[in-house]
Amino acid sequence: MKLLTTLYNKLNFYRLHHPKKSLFLFLVLVVVGTRISNAINPHVPTKTELADAAAKADKQQAEEAEAAAKAAQPKEADANHAEYKVLRPYLRANLNDWDSYESRGVSEPQAIAAHDGQPAWRIRHTYRAKNGFNATVLNDQMFYYTKNGVYLVLDAK
Length: 157
Known about the structure:
- There is one protein chain.
- It is built from 4 helices and 5 strands, in the order ααααβββββ.
- By secondary structure, the protein is an alpha+beta fold.
- It folds into 2 domains: 2-72, no CATH class; 78-155.
- Strands 1, 2, 3, 4 and 5 form a 5-stranded antiparallel sheet that branches.
- The N and C termini lie far apart (83 Å).
C-alpha cells in the first residue's frame, strides 16, 4: 500500500508540472494497483464458471467410466474381433467358394445367456458369397458363438 501511496503522490506532482509523464505514471499506477488488488482479492468464480467446470468434470468422469467399461469388456465382444477371429474361420470352412466372400456389415456383438458354462454372444452378419449353384447371393445371418467358436447359425430374415 505504501507503494501505491507514493505513486499516487508522484502522479499528482507530475500532473501539475509534467503532463506527459503523468500519463505514464497513471498507467503504472493502474497496473500495480490491479496486481495488488488481485493478490488481496483473488478471482471468485461466477455461477456460470462453476457450472461449466462441473459439467466438464461430469463429462470427463463419464468418459473415464465408459473407457473403463470398454476395457473390462472381453475381446470376444468386439465387432472387429468377432468378424476376423470367429466368423471368418467359420465361413472359410463352411462356404462353397471362400474367394467369392464379401462382407457387407457386422453388428455389435450382444451378450446372451451362457452356453456350456461359457459367456456367449450373438452377432448379425451380412455378406455375399456364391452358393452351391455358383450364383452370388446375399446372406443375412445371426451367429451365436463363444470364445471356442460358432455353435449356431440362423437366417436373420
